[in-house]
Amino acid sequence: MRFWDSSALVPLVCRETESARCRSWLRADPVMLVWALAAPEVISALARKRREGALGAPVFASAKRRLAKLENAWSEVTHYEAVRARSRRLLESHPLSAADALHLAAALVAVEDQTAHVGFVTFDRRLNEAAEKEGFQVLPAFLQ
After folding, report:
1. How many structural domains comprise the chain?
2. pTM above 0.70, yes or no
3. Do 98 and 91 touch, CB atoms closer than 8 A?
4. Secondary structure (DSSP) of 7-62
5. Cα–Cα distance for residue pair 81/36, rounded to 1 Å
6. 11: domain range?
């Protein structure tokens, strides 16, 4: 099982430099765990790419269809109160944005702080470092 941050979900739904690597990780461990609000973050990233001209309408629509398929397959952490409470500690302990603290808090809540054998996939450097400090096996390792 791996927890997937939205920064690692985007390459699964639209072509990016890290798409092949993300697909490989997903094939190696298809059990996906995500924060309940990850999908809107992915849509936000896709919409930004579309506004900037990096995604045309057909590619945007295709990416949203891929996201819908992923959503049907993944498990979402929906314990809002516990995630909110945990994120407050993380914000005081790590240099994270609120959104990143919520992702990390969701992962911690989901595994009940038993992080030693759980993967955490993110392309955000600060979140990668914080997840490693919290005991997760972070991917990609090159950011460590």
Report:
1. 1
2. yes
3. yes
4. HHHHHHHS--TTHHHHHHHHHH---EEEETTHHHHHHHHHHHHHHTTSS-HHHHHH
5. 12
6. 2-143
CATH, residue 67: 3.40.50.1010
Q: Which two tokens stand for residue 97?
A: 């944005």
Phi, psi of 128 (to 5 degrees): -60, -50
Q: Which H or E element spans position 119?
A: strand 119-121
Integer-rounded Cα Rg, in Å, for the chain is 15
96: which residues sit within 8 A by CB, 6+ positions away? 90, 104, 126, 127, 130
Contacts of 82 (CB under 8 A, 6+ apart): 105, 109
**Secondary element (H or E) of residue 72:** helix 57-73
pLDDT in tens, 28-78: 999 999 999 999 999 999 999 999 999 999 999 999 999 999 999 999 999
